[in-house]
Design goal:
2 domains; DNA polymerase, domain 1
Length: 309
């Protein structure tokens, strides 16, 4: 099937879905990805003679996912396309363009389970303690940034959105904590441990003032060399630098620190619901991947250790 150009009905529907994503506060990357997925679906529908969302039923959605799979799309790609369709049909249903959401009834393909990369506590300590706590502003910033990433289980996108006013370092009667803005603009409050508090205080005292540009300062906690808010690519790049400096495996990325935070909590006996709340997962099923990680680790220990394994 050759894709055709979507007609006016599809173009209007695509614009409506994107405006709805923007209204709901979706991240720019999410909006772009969903817009691309919906545009490809609209082109496929146009080729199949389906002139607007109202002409689509669950059979059409299933045919489309089969079309993607036959074209070599990975299960993750098909799953994301379905997520975009569900979101699009929700917007179109709310606007009265369609009566239901056929994408909700289409099954997602089975995705292979890839266990997340986990940093051992000794590796995390090696990484963090090799960052010098001297008067170098960038080192002070990076130590604070990575202590928060590992100690609070934060995504890179959450780290760079933290403002100074989001921090409560426990200087009064209460515990240290940070207000975090996660996916879907959901906010949560996460405890901050003593090592992260110490690192952030050193950075606020000696690092941030050296990096701050009064003309560019928007209140961001983590500032670049030019005094502007860091980006997620900056977080990855600086982590790569310190991973090499510590002599650790090069596949260590910011999300691995988040995975390790959750796994080490589970190892220590934390309740899965508490871990869900700390990570900001909307669904408990997302958090349950860590129980699979733990059971895999235990099975490996059993096989190594038991004479009848």
């Amino acid at each position: 099937m050759t894709d055709a150009a979507p007609g006016a009905s599809w173009r209007a529907a695509l614009e409506l879905a994107d405006r709805d994503q923007e209204r709901r506060g979706a991240a720019a990357r999410t909006r772009k990805a969903y817009a691309g997925d919906l545009a490809r679906f609209a082109a496929w529908c146009a080729s199949a003679g389906l002139r607007g969302p109202e002409a689509v039923d669950v059979k059409a959605v299933r045919r489309y996912t089969q079309f993607l799979t036959a074209g070599g799309a990975a299960a993750t790609t098909v799953t994301r396309a379905l997520a975009a369709l569900r979101s699009g049909f929700r917007s179109w249903k709310a606007a009265g363009l369609v009566a239901g959401n056929p994408a909700e009834l289409a099954p997602a393909p089975r995705r292979p389970q890839h266990l997340p990369r986990i940093v051992k506590p000794a590796e995390a300590a090696q990484l963090l303690e090799r960052i010098p706590a001297d008067d170098d502003a960038l080192a002070l910033r990076d130590r604070a940034m990575l202590e928060l990433a590992y100690g609070c289980g934060l995504r890179a996108a959450e780290l760079v959105r933290i403002d100074v006013v989001d921090l409560d370092l426990g200087e009064g009667a209460g515990p240290a904590q940070v207000r975090v803005t996660g996916k879907g603009e959901r906010t949560r409050t996460v405890p901050v441990g003593d090592p992260a508090v110490d690192a952030v205080q050193r950075y606020l005292g000696r690092g941030r003032p050296a990096l701050r540009d009064p003309a560019a300062d928007d209140g961001a906690l983590l500032l670049s060399r030019r005094g502007r808010r860091l980006s997620t690519s900056d977080v990855r790049r600086r982590l790569d630098r310190w991973v090499r400096h510590a002599g650790l495996p090069s596949d260590l990325h910011p999300h691995a620190l988040r995975h390790s935070f959750a796994t080490h909590l589970l190892d220590g006996g934390a309740d899965l619901r508490a871990i869900q709340e700390l990570l900001g997962h909307a669904q408990l099923s997302t958090t349950q991947v860590y129980t699979r990680v733990e059971s895999t680790r235990l099975r490996a220990a059993y096989r190594r250790s038991h004479p009848r394994a």
